[in-house]
Every structure is written in structure tokens, then in C-alpha cells.
Design brief:
This protein has about 180 residues and is of the alpha/beta class. It has helices spanning about 1-10, 20-35, 40-60, 170, and strands spanning about 60-65, 75, 80-85, 95, 100-105, 115, 120, 125-130, 130-135, 140, 145, 155, 160-165.
Length: about 180
């Protein structure tokens, strides 16, 4: 837990004031409490986690349960209105911005997105259903992604259109360069 928190701190520019960092601290604590095997000790830790999560949700606007699987160097760039489903899976080096929803497509049906490594999600994007987002993918702002996105592509629009990158140079360009 502490190694992950140190890495999260470095990933968030070693800035204690970043709200995304504190939301990740609460998340990491929630994951860690499952490793405590002795139930009489785990019960107060669970209560403390639920209390922290309530205040984290209310203060930062980030709903991210500890059942979500998040890789290393996860960055919450801007806070507010972020909803992540408990069965979503994120790879390493992912970036999430404000207004992002990663979750279920239909109420009552299981299945949330699985994201690869180095996925950059723009503000207001919605990733819904049991889809797979590949490695090195950029999701445009306000895109609604309902289908799989292969490695190295860009998803923009409502519903999202998948645009393959032409070269490695395109990966360094901002998403605005691909908008019509």
C-alpha cells in the first residue's frame, strides 16, 4: 500500500494539494484493508474506509470503489463528476479527467470496460459496457465509447468513431489535431 501511495504521489507531481492523489489514497487504503486477515481488526478498518470514501466522494466528486482494479501511475487529472464502476479494470499509466464515466451500459447487467496501459480519457467521456480498450489509446472529450477500441487508436464522437493513428508521431499530438 505505501509503495503504491508513494508512486501515486510522484505521479501527481509530488503535490499534496492534488485532489486526485487523495482519492487514490482512500482507494489504496480500501484495497489494503482486504489484506488484513483478522476480522476483529479488519472491521474497524472497513468502517474507517467507508467513512473516508463517503467524504472523498462528497468532497472530490470521484466515485471509485476499492473493488475497481487500478494499475500503477494512475492519474486523476481534474476532479469532479468521475464515476468508475467497481468491476472496471485499468492498466498502468492511465489518465482520467473530470466528468468521466467508466461503467455499466445497462442497469442490472454485469460488465464494465477493461482498459489497457497508457489510456488517456478526455473530459466528459463515457465508456460503457463490457468493452476492451487497448494499449496506447486516446479517448476524446465527450466521446461515448460502446465498442472495443484496438491498440494505438483514437476514439472520438457520439457514438465514438475509431480512428487509427498513422504513425508513432501521431501519438504525441494532442487530440485537437484529429478533430474535424
Amino acid at each position: 500500500m505505501f509503495a503504491n501511495i508513494r508512486e501515486d504521489w510522484r505521479t501527481h507531481d509530488s503535490n499534496w494539494g492534488r485532489h486526485g492523489f487523495w482519492a487514490l489514497v482512500v482507494y489504496r487504503f480500501g484495497r489494503w484493508r482486504y489484506s488484513v486477515g483478522w476480522r476483529p481488526l479488519r472491521a474497524p478498518l472497513s468502517f474507517f474506509y467507508k467513512l473516508l470514501k463517503f467524504f472523498s466522494d462528497a468532497l472530490f466528486g470521484i466515485e471509485m470503489p476499492c473493488e475497481t482494479v487500478i494499475g500503477k501511475r494512475f492519474v486523476i487529472e481534474h476532479v469532479g463528476g468521475i464515476v468508475i464502476s467497481g468491476d472496471a479494470i485499468f492498466g498502468d499509466d492511465c489518465i482520467v479527467r473530470n466528468g468521466v464515466t467508466v461503467g455499466l451500459r445497462h442497469r442490472g447487467l454485469r460488465g464494465s470496460p477493461q482498459l489497457g496501459d497508457r489510456v488517456d480519457i478526455g473530459a466528459g467521456a463515457k465508456l460503457l459496457g463490457p468493452i476492451r480498450i487497448g494499449n496506447d489509446v486516446s479517448i476524446g472529450a465527450n466521446a461515448v465509447v460502446l465498442c472495443d477500441v484496438p491498440d494505438g487508436c483514437i476514439a472520438v464522437g457520439i457514438p465514438a468513431r475509431i480512428i487509427p493513428r498513422k504513425s508513432a508521431v501521431d501519438a504525441a499530438l494532442p487530440l485537437a489535431a484529429f478533430e474535424p
